[in-house]
Amino acid sequence: MLENYLADLKASLTVSPIVKDIEVLEEFITSVSGYLECRALMIDGSVLYISEYFTICRDEIKRDKYSYHLQKDDELLIRWDNAPHHKELPTFPFHMHKKDSVQEHKEMKVEEVLIELSNIIE
């Protein structure tokens, strides 16, 4: 189950028309957890850093920690994550960082990030 989740995650990046190249920086799978960290070069020259730590619980995949960080020329453009800070936001722990702000946001998955970014990049 975890192997399929990891394969699907990488496949989402591979087939996206806005992703030019992918470099896996780290990945592992155990019997109960997995992790993927990779860098995706986007067609506009920006870079999307993806990290997900996930576990299996009662035959369901739980994403314990994620971050989708887009930058260009070493400058943050946007990042979605679920780090447990910004407790003041009603969507805690889910939020989005922009250059100078942190905003509430729903939980994100890589497929949703790619859809949002396709509206910005293309």
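The record above closes out task 2.4. Task 2.5 opens with a second protein, given below.
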Amino acid sequence: MSTLLKDPLLHIQPMHVDDLDAVMEIELRAYEFPWTEGNFRDCIRSNYYCCVYRQGEQYVGYAVMSITVGEAQILNICIDPILQGEGLGRRLLNNLITAAAKEGADTVFLEVRSSNRAAYALYDSVGFNEIGLRQDYYPAKKGREDAMVLALNLG
């Protein structure tokens, strides 16, 4: 087990505009088609559930989720690629699920690239079920890629 997981300084906290430089560094390393800083700013401004995951001063990940009446939508969840596979994504995902439940959501939704088998396996392991497919949803090197739509019933 990584010493990172045992570190008492590892914590999840609200995302602020001041965090965006560090968030964008991870976003650009993690994704071929990343969000823009403006996307994150808009989510913070719209009072979405936005959080950063840190170990002391080091950012290890972040997430963005919208919560409306009865449902939550995970819009972005990311662990720094150099730290993936350490269980951090599961911890961050569980934080989102807990936050959604506290805000009264009955269901949590998300989309995942059809090719992202590791993320799909994580979502499946915590109880998400595939409920649909969005054809050509994501940009890809050669055109577009489908997204699997997943849902987790909190009831």
